[in-house]
Amino acid sequence: MRKHRSFSIPSSLKIKDALLKWSEKYTKIAWLDSNGHSDAYSTYDAILAIAEQTDKSSRTVYCIDELSEFIDKEHDWLFGYLSYDLKNRIERLSSNNFDGLKFPEIHFFQPSKIIAIKDEALHFLYLNSHANQIEGDYSTIKVLLRENISHNVLSQAIHIKMRIHKDAYFEKANRFLEHIHRGDIYEANFCQEFYAENTTINAFETFRKLNAISKPPFASFLKSNEHYLLCASPERYLKRMGQAVISQPIKGTAPRGKTQIEDESLQYQLENDEKERAENIMITDLVRNDLSKSAVKGSVEVKELCKVYAFEQVHQMISTVVSKVPKNKKSFELIQETFPMGSMTGAPKVSAMKIIEALEETKRGLYSGAVGYFDPNGNFDFNVVIRSILYNEIEKYVSFSVGSAITAKSNPEKEYQECLLKAKAMRSVLEGS
Which end of the chain is more exposed for a tag (fewer CB within 10 A), N or C? Predict the structure, then answer.
């Protein structure tokens, strides 16, 4: 069904620039980039999937049933996203808050062309109907690789507005605390939107700038007609590798220091912060419970607990939970059993989502969802859509959201400051600061 060709390449960041530049003309693009981060669960350094809107040899999937059927029967690649509001199909929930972005609930496409970077080689995986284009496309990419690709100047600085202002944030945070003290929940992720209306951005250049200042392990750029995702996520939601399933929830954030001594001090404080560790452990326990729904008995294991990793903008506390599933376990069932990710909801999950819906001002949409791929063998890898700019080109609406976990020990002022810290990279890119 697909033609495979591989070409050796020099170890260079320029190849990624060339691939993104080459892809700009396509109507459907998925670009996933590890930014050089590598661990025991890494598969590709980066992978690009593309298709044309008019391409009859590839399919587009917009609903759960179609997605599950494709994975089980077609045995080919799918790239795309699951929005947070897929929760309404999995549980008896609803989302009626304001939505300025208007992204579909689910969107996947079967790419006509896939190019992966792995082991210092470009791997072309083209549908047979496009196999005769591999040589020509590789030649074009090599030309771009030799050129100094000029990047357009970003559009004029954008004025960002807050959907929830500080006093309202404190009032809502205290209402979350009331629910916690009453015993309705013991943790909830409270998010707020920053947005700009009647605004046009250069999505490719904005993504390049966001990625350059963040360099996260789960960066992604998604284009589907007028909808764009510019994602600098540090978090993996879920990965399947045969019978192995991996989840790496993040809970716990601290700023980077201005000096090495200050940086190390902030990292140490995060590692030993009782409240941050409690947040992480609660969500790790939720993930363990989610994975246990289909795991082989006794196979759920916490490989890392509350380990602090340094990124360009922040320190993050990450845990790694793994399990083993039966060979015949359907991939989409694993998604249904674990979605949305606990780090973006709280616990108990359903109760937290109901309260979140009542207290937040906007529909999350793709924010708090997941972007990634399914491969022909049913393996998959999805990130958590955080630290991301979302853009509807037709509506001229730009948005990014940030959140923090509210627990019994939360201080609303500190949670508010954590949100501002997480918003820093997106805001600086858009406002030109």
Answer: C
